[in-house]
């Protein structure tokens, strides 16, 4: 793990699915139904299928990159060199032989049980400009994401406890002591106090929270589907012909941004797949999480209890994702600070300081990740611009562009390593790149052809253009 710290725990593939599912079914998934309805059934179904497929492709790129980076680090340990630049150094002790089986000199990419963050992978594979672009992208995205969550949950709670009297109301009275703004800020403080402590731990320590949240999410999904079926059977809503005939392709650009934001889990994939005990199930876990997509809309509820339960759905959804994203940001900040200092960060247990100073010294990175989003949420309720910029640009970079360049650089690096290890075979003309001939990566993406990389990059450019045009029109 970047920056050291306590060793990570482990969990089953089912629990891994729960973690990734909770990340996907977050703020983005809650906005899909409205965007889907605005674009139309036919265009929405086609666009949703394409976007989900592209996001799944890049998720498999992430898994391949994790396996390859672990192999490069193991190889560097065996040779006693720096995996990033080839300089000689002491063998890395963070990867023990027990992590990845036998330690033969043959270079075989394997998944090891060491936690890793995107920052660590970028430092190993990207050049200086790529690293700068990566850190700018992931910092903007994760801070923006956390600020959105820190605003959305308190606002949802306030709207339930103190409903807005009219659509254009900005501040309204809730009681003799509180107005709507005061109540919102109170919920921001409570949100930070309840979920903030998870930021100081590790992903596997939020397991119970994730499991409970998943049960609530599936119960909500099931309830919505049942209510929709009942409404359709009673003739409520528009006719089938009306729904099918409605189409508004001008809204596709907005739908693109919403779906990109919805399928985002790539920034946390490195830290979530490492603790999975049965690594052969990683591909199934990813595919299952991406298949669970929801596109229903509701305007009213026949039973009041159902109404409150479904209104609280964003609270459960976003509260479970907030600690995961906070931990991801914390570890990436830790890794950035470690590289800037030019030394490995000590583990939390190594600090002997006591009291407030000792707490700040030990948990500095967690506080840097946690406090700015809460401060932003405390002073503003309007994050619409933040949502658009974060999801459309920084989110697209993390979700599609970064995984594509990671796997591209990794394959070139593996090809170079293979050539160095098999000079005699390189002299013999054989079809295929060296990486494909000599390295067996059982976690390699099934989309191994180079054309997939170019397709994803081209699709990213098209998406950015469409989203920019839409923002310009509005």
UniProtKB/TrEMBL annotation:
Residues 12-281 form the Amino acid transporter transmembrane domain. It is found in: Membrane. It is a multi-pass membrane protein. InterPro entries: AA_transpt_TM (IPR013057). The chain crosses the membrane at residues 12-36, 42-67, 131-151, 183-203, 215-233, 305-329, 362-380, 386-410, 452-473. It comes from the Eukaryota. Keywords: Glycoprotein, Membrane, Transmembrane, Transmembrane helix. One of its GO terms (cellular component) is membrane. It holds the Pfam family Aa_trans. Belongs to the TMEM104 family. This is Amino acid transporter transmembrane domain-containing protein. It comes from Phytophthora infestans (strain T30-4). The lineage of its organism: Eukaryota, Sar, Stramenopiles, Oomycota, Peronosporomycetes.
